[in-house]
Amino acid sequence: MRMACARVRVLIWITVLASGSALQALVCSLAAAHTARVRPECIVAMGATGAMVERASAGEAFHIGRYNRTMNLPTESSLDPTAAAAVYRQRRERVLAALRAAGGGVAIVPTAPEVLRNRDADYPYRHDSYFYYLTGFAEPEALLVLDASAPPDAPASILFCRAKNTERETWEGFRYGPEGARDAFGFDAAFPFDELDTHLPGIIADKPALHYALGVSPELDAQVRHWLDAVRARARSGVVAPSAVHDLLPVLDDMRLFKDNHELAVMRRAAQISALAHRRAMAACRPGMREYELEAELLYTFRKYGAQAPAYGSIVAAGANACVLHYPAGNAIARDGDLILIDAACELDGYASDITRTFPANGRFSAAQRELYDIVLAAQQAAIDATRAGVNFEAPHDAAVRVLAQGLLDTGIIGRERFTSVDDVIGQRAYARFYMHRTGHWLGMDVHDCGDYRERAGERGGERGTSADAQGMPPWRTLAPSMTLTIEPGLYIRAADDVPEKYWNIGIRIEDDAVVTAAGCELITRDVPVDADEIEALMRDARARDTAAAAPAASGSA
């Protein structure tokens, strides 16, 4: 009974931290999973809509892929297996259609290799994003072939994957095997991975072109040359090797840049989990804690609520460390009066989220901290207001820079004796000393997702314009609905003789994830507070709960 009460108290504490109906639904669903009586073999997980679904048994895993040692395999599916397979099949058909329009040929898309950490220990496996986007297949040692020149009675979508192996599965977990993968994921054909060299030369022979990620992997480049040489060796038999090799990534990048409903649903859930982690870290923070203790709160929350891993190395920076843009979480102590900058988020079912918040270690911003914080927040709002379909990618950055430049002038961090107007500050890029990065980036399967930021010059087919701007660069890409990007202005004020001392060593960044819409953008990470007053209220309430919880214990011990 004592353990049950403790569990309920923890769940109530988590629920209090949650705000917003979506996040409350997430927490309530997860709370139900903890308090419900379930059979050991029936572990409960949360679906994309907040409904409770049962985790598959080992036998069912053959069909829906939940029993595997890879860290990136979905903990639960937001689609039923048949619908999920259809999503990936449709993506493969789109690639095949694009290749046929370009004259045909064969595309090759490998997954990522396993990576040795040290001695005989591997890093947790993470698939290649392009491969997963087209397959949904998470096992290592796999390669997708798309034959856009295949005859009607021949397979166009072919997977190579690891063969079934009872002994290896005893050690490493379930493998689909070629037959199982073909049936579960909707490929036309599948073969064992160790038969690549047997089949590939025959598949690419007499095809007009080969399409793959050019120059990305020396190993893949060498393998492709090997297959081409194998075809050329049969020249006396009348067999012809592909006469052209094209980079496949522009085709895939343009597809991945626009998120479908399935992708957006997963990204919203990832954002909710990451927001809950940030709230937990804010609530837990006290002067005297070390950066890695706050990181532990984040990592615990990611895994507790089903995310497979952090989307990137967590940045947890106390005090002056916040002025280091990619500072890793270390062992520095959060001191009374410090700001804490946390840039951290989870990856869920292959999709990244990306959140940054800055908050005071003691729960209250100083006057100087609040002054700069409000400038950054205003800059972010200006960028948000500028993010909508029809504007170019640079518009949010320009809007944020103007607010930051004005703020740097108003605070005296940039002296008016040197720059008479905000236009001077921007024209001479004087702000870049204190704001040296861009205001956003694409977000999706990779935290810095693929896709051109400028219009592509020399694209086959001439689908996009290539007129240059005043600097001779192609124009910035135009935002369109269902693109996803971050909005993350900041200020980083290092100690310097020409900077007012009260601002020294203050680093602030505020980052949210946005989905572009026709009328503006949808922020999917606002379940964690961004307003300074709301941040202080969250931290104040957390301290009050701790004090209230400690009072009965103190009286009982007395």
Automatic annotation (TrEMBL):
Pfam families the UniProt entry points to: AMP_N, Peptidase_M24
Keyword Protease assigned: yes
Enzyme class name: hydrolase
Recorded coiled-coil stretches: none
Cofactor(s) needed for function: Mn(2+)
Domain Aminopeptidase P N-terminal: 83-221
Similarity comment text for this entry: Belongs to the peptidase M24B family.
Protein name: Xaa-Pro aminopeptidase
Organism: Paraburkholderia solisilvae
Annotated gene: pepP
